Amino acid sequence: MNSQRVLLATADGDFAAVFSEGGLAGLDFPRKSRPPVVAIESLPPQPRKWAQMTARALARALAGKTLTALPPLDESAGTDFQRAVWQALRAIPAGSTRSYSEIAASVGRPRAFRAVGQACGANPIPVLTPCHRAVATGGGLGGFSGGLDWKRRLLERERQAA
Fold it and tell me: Hey, which residues are catalytic here?
């Protein structure tokens, strides 16, 4: 199967999800122009199931709720270090944050806090792999691939739901 791109409608706009043979390989924030997409209904059975799982997980995440199930994640485009960071991000509870330094220490590379920031920026599945929970030491927001408005919005929703 070639990668398939589908739009997932939410109250916050249409997110674009990309599915490979291995699972969910990318998730893009809503924007005005998009490459061609296919309808979820036209996907083969397995990617259709993954798209439905992704839509449910995305709805929970956007409501600030803890994720209960994710589709298989295809993180093969990442390095071993990046995949370790992404896994550490998914271990941060909703409504909580960790500094880049704390995340670096949790993956066994305590001096690699800048590399953690780069791994967050390279995260192909934001929101579901919650890089918005990574902050600068001292609580500053740092950066975010979806923009700081999205980061603030996601963190606030999680705090309200907690």
Answer: 131
